Fold this protein.
Amino acid sequence: MKRFGTMLLISAVAIGTAGTSAQQNHAGHAHDRADVPAYNTAPPPKNAKLAPILSGRQLSGPNFAHPAQVKSYKEAAKYAHVLHQLPCYCHCDRNAGHASLRTCFESEHGAVCGTCMQEALYAAEETRKGKTVKQIREAIIRGEHTKLDLRKITSAE
């Protein structure tokens, strides 16, 4: 029970911090272009053996208590080829060896990181609007994803 409380607190902090970050960075402050995290320049090859993005029953428990956490994984699964080509500004490429934003959703990392959730949900929204991966990547580098307030996500659909 103690672990559940701790995980719930971590999740709430991740979402709350992202919401605060979104408000503070509402102008969409650009990230340092010289410091762009790892990403791939093309979608994964058809025969690539990538780890699966968490889905189904894996999206339950304390790290998936908020709709934004579940929705970000569902969107990551739908648009995995896009996320494969995007950097992740929590800089998990440095501390967790991630190769792109997609990698964040192969474990519970994306559920406890507001940056990962913001970027994934932003990328899905922009893809539906018809934006190219390059346009989405440039917008993320400019910090556009920080405008997304995870606290306003009320449904996992």
Summary: Residues 2-13, 17-28 have pLDDT under 50 and may be disordered. The first helix runs from residue 2 to 24. The chain has one domain: 2-152. Helices lie at 2-24, 67-78, 80-83, 92-95, 114-128, 133-142.
